[in-house]
Amino acid sequence: MTPEAREETVLEAVQRRRELVNDAIDADLPIGDPERLYEASRYLLEAGGKRLRPAILLLTAEALLDVPLLGEDYREFPTLVEGEPPIDLMKAAVSVEVIQSFTLIHDDIMDQDEMRRGVQSVHVEYDPETAILAGDTLYSKAFEIMIAAGAPSARSMDALDTLASTCTRICEGQSLDLEFETRPTVGTDEYLDMVDRKTAVLYAASASIPAILLGADEHTRNALEEYGHAVGKAFQIHDDILDLIVSSDDLGKQRGSDLVEGKQTIVTHHAREQGVDVDGLITGDDPDAVSQEAIDEAVAVLEEAGSIDYGRTLAREYVEEGKEYLQVLPDNDARARLEQVADYLIERGY
Amino acid sequence: MTPEAREETVLEAVQRRRELVNDAIDADLPIGDPERLYEASRYLLEAGGKRLRPAILLLTAEALLDVPLLGEDYREFPTLVEGEPPIDLMKAAVSVEVIQSFTLIHDDIMDQDEMRRGVQSVHVEYDPETAILAGDTLYSKAFEIMIAAGAPSARSMDALDTLASTCTRICEGQSLDLEFETRPTVGTDEYLDMVDRKTAVLYAASASIPAILLGADEHTRNALEEYGHAVGKAFQIHDDILDLIVSSDDLGKQRGSDLVEGKQTIVTHHAREQGVDVDGLITGDDPDAVSQEAIDEAVAVLEEAGSIDYGRTLAREYVEEGKEYLQVLPDNDARARLEQVADYLIERGY
């Protein structure tokens, strides 16, 4: 399958689930009181997002159960255990997206990023206080929603434990990311460990939670977790590359912002090893004050050093590794989509 | 019993549990990686705190089980269900204290309060980014620790659901508190609703979670929840009064800061109804720039208007209401301590 054909197939699979996920977010995260708090909590969720993590969660469940694509109602999804009542799998999908949204809101405050998904960040659109609280509200709501999925309690507990430890890892990863900005260099292993915690763990949770909730065996669950770790790292590496090469309009935020903020990425790490003076590539620390030409020039230097290609190759390796783990699933359409989603994560243009 | 004698008894009961709770925090919230994040997460917990909520949780469990004070190992605490293995009740106590600490860290950022428990707030001692992340880390850790209490999974789920919805209510309450600062007046019912969500729900959780975990019936659980709602509101009303009348040294933060920040309290509400120009009492909005004399004068006006007495009376009424709910418990020493803790909440000097 060509990348273009694959993109079309994946996008269709992701988009059809996205519509269902968006409806579910509306239903499972209603506007409560005080209204402004709930509006702020939903603001970024409503601004867009591909819903890749929920798509992975739902596709994994379909692959595990070996049913046709969209062949079961996500709201009354059968488990793998005979005689058990169905569960509201969609709530689990909403839960991971709500966690993702909470982390974006708090990260944007910490990173002072003013744009996200083509709209103002929550702390700009509202205010920092409301943004902190909106994130905190989503945090507890994600747990409430996961509980309401209604899986048998021992497995629900297991899923909640996974969700909680995932959140802890995400905080650790973001903390490392901030710390790295203050350091002259960061090793490849350190960077990949940071990316694993900051980004990949939520992919790992998205792929392993359906296995937990449906009652899959531990081997299957672990393999799916590894799939998530691998493709999640690939996703973040690709994201770092996109920040360099995609227009601000398509990104929904300022191009080159990572470079301006001094974020450590696998690309800048490689460039440093090639002797590039990465810190001298861009002067000033206000993303808005840096010209497109200055960013073009900096990117050209990174391209020249082979650093962007290095990142692309590494991301591809992780995707291939991730796909291997999917062999644990029955050979069906949903598994094929999960393989294609893995490819799409590093082929997407924004 | 005189208030002084009661204070001594309560403090002894609280302090003996506090030492155990502090040891448990050390054990259940170890310094992880990155160290700085975990140090920041523990900073406020280590700075002090009376551990009132854990004390209520532990005493409630002892009262329910009808055992002598400190008669059972909190780490292997029997449940009410015959033949069930013991649970790690202490972890539940640590969990509610960790939630309390997370809310204080985030509230101090939002309220720009620079002191807490006699030390600098986390966002001042570290930085706002680290403080946001420290709070977020404690948030998920609280769930991990509650899960590790090891109660039978259906009841664990119930406790987690209570913890999650409690956190949601706390966010709503804090949001209302911030919103009230921008409004000229706030009704008594609105204020009490805000206080219930912001403060009392965590007392309610502290009293009802042991009932859930130990397997008490729903009537008992609901009554204990009501105890928490009532004494929690009394606690907050008393806290608002302490902010006015206790020296900054004893408070561990600037006296009169609520007045300066324009916080709505039951005291200012009453004063407004008596025709006091509350907003004119203090000019300027920097707590450090307001003299002790100016605060003394403002407090004298509130005293004169009967507003402080009004608050005291209301708090007392809630305490008496709360104590009534304790009749659901067996008549034993632990129940007597819970009654005394309720009195202490509005008699404490800081």
From TrEMBL, chains A, B:
EC number: 2.5.1.1, 2.5.1.10, 2.5.1.29
GO biological process: isoprenoid biosynthetic process
Molecular-function GO term, any one: metal ion binding
Keyword set, alphabetical order: Magnesium, Metal-binding, Transferase
Entry-linked Pfam families: polyprenyl_synt
InterPro entries associated with the record: Isoprenoid_synthase_dom_sf, Polyprenyl_synt, Polyprenyl_synt_CS
Cofactor: Mg(2+)
Chloroplast keyword on record: no
Similarity annotation: Belongs to the FPP/GGPP synthase family.
Protein name as annotated: Geranylgeranyl diphosphate synthase
